[in-house]
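REQUEST FORM: STRUCTURE PREDICTION
Request ID: SP-0412
Submitted by: Lab K.M.
Chain count: 1
Length (residues): 198
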Amino acid sequence: MSAGNQKALGLRERKKAKTIAAVQMHALRLFKEFGYHETTVEQIAEAAEISPSTFFRYFATKEDVVITDNYDSLLTSAFGEQSSELSPLQALRQAITSGMAHLSPEELKTVYERNQLIMSVPSLRAASLNNLTQSLQMFAKIVAERMGRKEDDLVIRTLAGAVMGVNFSVMQYWSEHPEADFAKLLDESLALLEGLPL
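STATUS: Completed
RESULT:
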């Protein structure tokens, strides 16, 4: 790919990420003001100054405007940069916590608001399970590549599942204790898994 094409792709991806963030910001504001179930896709689109069809280009459903984030690609990249001397779990822990450390206060506030909705709206909690499954598969893939093993290796899947379980339990705890430091909770909780054999 030429440098010009890479630059254009980078610009397209940044524009897409910016649009997604703007739509989510408006959606979260409307959900807070009127309630999740009472807010329509049309209202979100109007607030974000896009058409409903443009909304559906970015989000397949209304649930997705809460569930979707851009963190998987960042995590994959950060994981790949970790020292080969670290165990896969240590590398995952380092990648996750370093990514959390780079979130701005506004981004962390958005993560918190999305988390609050997911934990308080049953349909969103159910939809988030699909997202967690996709993240589990992503974790299994990057760990398997690092270890030279297959993604369906039970040990690899167990590690990925344990990391996702920790993530979910921390999300739930944080929704009940908003004063807690999410990044610190996540790091301390992931540290509890250090006894695993990988």
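NOTES: The longest helix spans residues 3-34.
Reviewed by: T.R.
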